[in-house]
Amino acid sequence: MIALAFTIVAPEHATARMKKSQEQSIDFSSFTCSSFIKEMADSSEEDAGAVLLWLDGYLSGVSGDTVLHWKGFEQFAENLVTHCQENRDQMLLDAAKNVGIE
What we know:
By secondary structure, the protein is mainly α. It has helices spanning 2-8, 14-19, 33-42, 45-63, 70-86, 92-99.
């Protein structure tokens, strides 16, 4: 199901942004759910996984939770994709906070 989530998601020009990430930083605060969905759809599973792990780390920093729960991570990825598909204009980081990680 996670692989399916990776192939469904992607942000506008995000794939290009992610590929350029080796050269420059990515400003996740500028990503909408729509751009996230588009970018994830255009990304490799590896790149999509890296983005989702970054989002998990971001949420961990916000919440103070320092444990990576793989089962909760998979559910988070699926929930985030679904949420973003239904709320395309929402900013990605706000969507990630709304969905949260269990």
